[in-house]
Amino acid sequence: MPSNRGRIEHGRMQKVQQILSEFQLRKEELLEVKRRIQQEMEKGLRLETHETASVKMLPTYVLSTPDGSEVGDFLAVDLGGTNFRVMLVKVGKDEKGSWKISTSNQMYSIPTDVMTGTAEMLFDYVAKCISNFLDQHNMKHKKLSLGFTFSFPVRHERIDKGILLNWTKGFKASGAEGNNVVGLLRDAIQRRGDFEMDVVAMVNDTVATMISCYYEDHSCEVGMIVGTGCNACYMEEMKNVELVEGEEGRMCVNTEWGGFGDTGELEEFRLEYDCIIDETSINPGYQLFEKIVGGKYMGELTRLVLLKLVNQNLLFNGEASEQLKTRGSFETRLLSQIESDTADQKQICNILNTLGVVPSQGDCEIVHLACKSVSTRAAHICAAGLAGVINRMWENKCKETMSITVGIDGSVYKLHPQFKHRFHMMVRELAPDCDITFLQSTEGSSLGAALISAVAGKLGS
Ligand code: GLC
Q: Is the dihedral of CA 299, 304, 305, 307 positive or negative?
């Protein structure tokens, strides 16, 4: 139990609040972030400015959303977070002719040495997991079409060909950057030689999320992930996608907005903690927006804030435990637990105990406030990003009133008890001219790849 050392005295609380107030972004500041992200999006789309844009706006070659006329079995594989997932998707029609999609799936964790070893090691591991999955489902004899969700920045040449620009989110397998990722997967499958697959499409997780939500709601034209990383895609007019020839119709663009800020656009908003996160990361100078919002970083950001409060003698009697001093010890899921509606002082205290600290009631309250500051800033800055995307779409439509659905997935969005609410409120405030529906996807990032494969398979035949 928290030792009862009474309420926090006024002076101490004031100092804590002053330190935490740096996390609050005023509406004008958020509107400025929205404006700048829109500016970078424009630069990313234009041929002459694309190279220097921090928001890469990568064409995906997903031209239209599937109309649901394809049936069959598809394998979806999903690589992009700490887990690798394989899913069997049966696309078929039910008695009434409406769509029926049944799935079974399996998660495999990716060992750190595989994430940061060689590309060959990583893709051999992927192929091994697929092989294991096929064994379990007695499907090794069948040559299935495979849809690959690969959640990193890829420059596509076609839907089934694209080179990895750079790793993000702690991945670093050597020999993959600059290479065709579908080729790496095909080679690994061939090296094994115990099953065959037809890799028909590779998509980003944002794209897969948009597609899977489109099945439920045909107004879904934006896909977004707030998980380990953070990113969004949306349907753009072809005439604006200068990297691809053709003027007609629309193409889905993977914004890769996680890189926003990499050319200085977030400088005045970044705090000392953000700089430490970046400097100690595997990719310093890159993904600065993502390092504010992504689940990979939010826990660590909070730990750094707590250490600052300890150093100022405002928390834990000025003493941090060894665990708390250890990088990575405060996981992002702890923010969710501490900020959950039902978390009382006892639970917060228990969590802190596991980190080797014996907190007072006041300490628990301050830790709660620190978590709230970090996660609210993330929700708000992420809202500014989405408001930028939606505003661009609204301008494309010549500012008619616009109703739009945003498909969303990701652990932070789904599991944090307050993130959604704060995020939705702020998006609506920053994009007041649009009627926005948020649709949380179930199985989005894998399922979408299978559905895209269904279309790609058909177009290719
Ligand atoms: C990172 C990746 C991006 C992905 C996002 C969410 O930002 O670069 O491709 O969509 O994480 O997983």
A: positive
Catalytic residues, by residue number, are 169, 205
Angle at 379 between CA 374 and CA 381, to 5 degrees: 95
Ligand 1 atom closest to the Cα of residue 225 is 6
Which of these ranges, 59-73, 206-220, 240-254, 274-288, has the smallest mean pLDDT?
A: 59-73
Tell me the best of 204, 254, 289 to mutate to test the pocket of ligand 1, counting ligand atoms within 8 Å of each CB and taking the most: 204
Pocket test for ligand 1, best of 85, 231, 286 (most atoms within 8 A of CB): 231
Q: Whose CA is nearest to atom 3 of ligand 1?
A: 152
Residue 304 CA to ligand 1 center (angstroms) comes to: 24
DSSP 360: B
Q: What is the pLDDT of residue 64?
A: 67
Q: What 3-state class would DSSP assign to 174? A: strand
Q: Which residue has the higher pLDDT, 189 or 65?
A: 189
Going by C-alpha positions, the residue among 161, 84, 152 that lies closest to residue 122 is 84
Q: Which residue's alpha carbon is at the smallest distance from atom 12 of ligand 1?
A: 229
CA pair distance 35, 389, nearest whole angstrom: 10
Confidence of residue 395 (pLDDT cuts 50, 70, 90): very high
Q: What is the pLDDT of residues 433-453, one digit of tens each?
A: 999 999 999 877 778 888 787
